[in-house]
Amino acid sequence: MTRIVFAGGKVFDGSGASAQAGDVVVEDGRIVEVGTGLDGDEVVDATGCTVLPGLFDCHTHFMFGDIDTVKALNTPFSLPFYQAIGNMRATLECGITSVRDALGADLGVATAVRTGLVAGPRMQIAISMVSQTGGHGDDWMPCGVHNSVLHPGMPNGVGDGPEELRRIVRELVRAGADVIKIATSGGVLSPRSNPKLGQFRDEEVAMVVAEAAAAGIFVMSHAQATDGIKVAARNGVRSVEHGVFLDEEAVTLMLERGTWLVPTLTAPRAVLKQIAAGMTVSDHIRDKAISVSARHDESVRMAVEAGVKIAMGSDSGVGPHGDNLDELPLMVACGLTPAQALHAATRSAAELLGVDGELGTVEPGKKADLVLVRGNAEELAARSGAEFREAVSGVWMDGKRVV
């Protein structure tokens, strides 16, 4: 059994504390020692580097590369499955070894990674988003066409009323969903919904949460509107995604219920960047993107100041895969320290996904998902996602180098 030692660097253990000088020893895919002056059969020279736990992105979309509807309509059905291979590789190269795919990837994509057919991070998949009729996730277009193609791996997520939602959740679980995603507010990119208005009533959200709990999985909620955030937190949703229009009552509810916030600060910026580059969107969608962007940072600062639990999510797929770490300095700008931003991408994210018993920290017994970064990881996290990505010099999963 080979004993690998990452020697001579600093260790950011994922706890939220700053990195300290230390070595990390790996055997048989697990971390077995963390300390100083450790030895091994094989040495990875970490001099001048930081060793971190494998990073998490709690909100990705491997089956998407951008939000250009015209391009999507002219893309052959199966092409995104092949493009996902590159998207997953770009994610690994950032040092991200675990993700939650928030819509798009089906059980086939996840199985291809889990069986080693293609390289990619560990993933939990939502498959489809549960949405009310006319809500964010209902791809009905004003011309009467539906801009989505359902297939055997992707059940329809649009429904109304507790009993219909019960059936939808059970169909998603049957299809392999590891997490249920619900839209409790409108969104920017859906044709007719309003991101300032809540969706679904308490009894509907409670049913989704209850059915997910019966299957042993959590619920995440696209929730931009104030009322949508509150209905999610009130009914036991595990995490609020985006959280654009928070108010004090919503923050208090999240604190009381232990609800995580996954801010996805890069998402509205990515939308506006694509619009500025000439992507065709309706005036309605453009105006929504501007409105959301204007308020988003303010709400995240409010949550950070109050002590709401934060986990990193980039909404990659709305923007380019590989730019995931742009989220780190944006979180720092909203009040997290660099160490807290990295904690949001390690231990806090692992806790959110319910995998903190195996991942998220550098400590004996954990799986050896590790990232080696040249320089000071905290300084990089505060400065630039691109610089952080370029500083990644190696990525290991289960003690095996994958990048």
UniProtKB/TrEMBL annotation:
<feature type="domain" description="Amidohydrolase-related">
    <location>
        <begin position="50"/>
        <end position="402"/>
    </location>
</feature>
<protein>
    <submittedName>
        <fullName>Amidohydrolase family protein</fullName>
    </submittedName>
</protein>
<dbReference type="InterPro" id="IPR051781">
    <property type="entry name" value="Metallo-dep_Hydrolase"/>
</dbReference>
<dbReference type="InterPro" id="IPR032466">
    <property type="entry name" value="Metal_Hydrolase"/>
</dbReference>
<dbReference type="InterPro" id="IPR011059">
    <property type="entry name" value="Metal-dep_hydrolase_composite"/>
</dbReference>
<dbReference type="InterPro" id="IPR006680">
    <property type="entry name" value="Amidohydro-rel"/>
</dbReference>
<dbReference type="GO" id="GO:0016810">
    <property type="term" value="F:hydrolase activity, acting on carbon-nitrogen (but not peptide) bonds"/>
</dbReference>
<dbReference type="Pfam" id="PF01979">
    <property type="entry name" value="Amidohydro_1"/>
</dbReference>
<dbReference type="InterPro" id="IPR057744">
    <property type="entry name" value="OTAase-like"/>
</dbReference>
